[in-house]
Write a structure and sequence with these properties.
alpha/beta, TIM Barrel, Lyase, Ornithine Decarboxylase, Chain A, domain 1, 2 domains, 7-stranded parallel beta sheet, 6-stranded mixed beta sheet, 10 helices, 19 strands, elongated, binds pyridoxal-5'-phosphate, PLP-binding_barrel, pyridoxal phosphate binding
């Protein structure tokens, strides 16, 4: 923990992001996607500021590892990434929300590739291409079961019957998105793939993408030409039914501010919801729900101090939480030491389960006042 010497004395919490682990996870996903010996491109999804870990440093690390295609949600995220990555074919930026009305010209000017989610998106994109007098690249999204974004069944058939509608569009690829890839053996995966393939058979050929993190670990038939992992890059387990094949990418440490020895029967925190059953040593840590440490973790989560488990007691406050650190050796428990809230001793997915949510939500909810350390750049 040598790097902790460089943490400002006033920092209440430290978020360490391991870019080497993220790059390693990307390589593992790419290799797994190519397990049948076919070339399958592995993109990187860095929307929501790289799932809370920093889209720019993450994308730069992925670029160095060989990733050439990056997905973000909207124009604003795309423009920020465009400014940070080299332009040209070595770093394609795809925009999942597509050319929302009014953003078309900015998308084209910045050389971004929108995902066209409707016939209306297609029309507005090709009209702009005609006006600019050059082809504009795009991916077209066909909905096969999410019923969220993408051409529905009828519109995909209409497009197949009128492919002149694609004139002026340089077709980068076709995509669809799986609803239940995280559930091993779910029949919906094959059903969606079959619907997708039926549409593709009627449409002009272009590279095809269906699988995100979990889909990479399901039937090899789902892999097509490109996979689009997000969560697994950041260490979320893409196979919830089995041990996590990914490496942890972050560590969240919170500083112990105060230690108090209390007798049995002492209540802790707002609402006095927790009462010690025996004499206890409590530690107060400088992280709260304002930092994305979910209030649902009150009296249900735990942290580790010097590798020893310390259960959260009482409600999580905005900037503070309390743990019962009675089992931590006294020499390891002094004001100023750090507790691990998420990390190798306290996996992200376990924290999420204790909070009644998924790793995705914990990641994207991580607060802004942590002292951030990027390692392995
Ligand atoms: C967010 C998203 C992904 C990445 O999903 P993960 O489960 O995080 O791998 C891929 N494709 C689309 C369309 C998405 O919205």
């Amino acid at each position: 923990m040598g790097f902790l010497d460089q943490v400002p004395a006033g920092a209440g919490a430290v978020l360490t992001i391991d870019l080497a682990a993220i790059a390693g996870n990307w390589r593992r996903l790419r290799d797994h996607a190519q397990r049948s010996g076919r070339t399958v491109e592995c993109a990187g999804v860095v929307k929501a500021d790289g799932y809370g870990l920093g889209a720019v440093p993450v994308a730069r690390a992925l670029l160095k590892a060989g990733c050439r295609t990056f997905f973000v949600a909207d124009l604003e995220e795309a423009a920020a990434l465009r400014a940070a990555l080299p332009t040209g074919p070595d770093a394609r930026i795809l925009v999942l929300h597509g050319p929302t009305p009014g953003t078309e010209r900015d998308l084209a000017a910045l050389g971004l590739i929108p995902v066209l989610n409707s016939l209306d998106d297609i029309d507005r994109w090709r009209f702009l291409a005609a006006e600019l007098g050059r082809e504009l690249p795009a991916v077209i999204h066909i909905d096969t079961g999410m019923n969220r974004l993408g051409l529905d069944d009828g519109d995909a058939r209409r497009l197949a019957g009128d492919t002149a509608r694609l004139s002026g569009i340089a077709l980068t690829g076709w995509m669809s998105h799986l609803a239940s890839a995280d559930v091993a053996g779910d029949g919906l995966n094959a059903e969606q793939d079959a619907r997708f393939r039926a549409h593709l058979a009627r449409l002009p050929a272009a590279p095809v993408s269906l699988a995100a993190s979990s889909g990479i670990f399901r039937e090899a038939s789902l892999l097509h030409n490109m996979v689009r992992p997000g969560a697994a890059l950041y260490g979320v387990n893409p196979t919830p039914e089995a041990p996590n094949p990914m490496s942890p990418a972050l560590r969240l440490l919170g500083r112990v501010l105060q230690i108090r020895d209390v007798p049995a029967g002492t209540t802790v925190g707002y609402g006095a919801t927790y009462r010690t059953a025996a004499p206890a040593r409590l530690a107060t840590i400088a992280v709260g729900y304002a930092d994305g440490y979910f209030r649902a973790l009150g009296s249900s989560g735990h942290v580790t101090i010097a590798g020893v488990r310390a259960p959260v007691v009482g409600r999580i406050s905005m900037d503070l939480l309390s743990v019962d650190a009675s089992d931590v050796p006294p020499a390891a428990l002094v004001p100023g030491v750090f507790a691990e809230l998420i990390g190798p001793d306290r996996p992200l997915d376990d924290v999420a389960a204790d909070a009644g949510t998924i790793g995705y939500e914990i990641l994207t909810g991580l607060g802004r006042r942590f002292y951030r350390v990027y390692q392995g750049a």
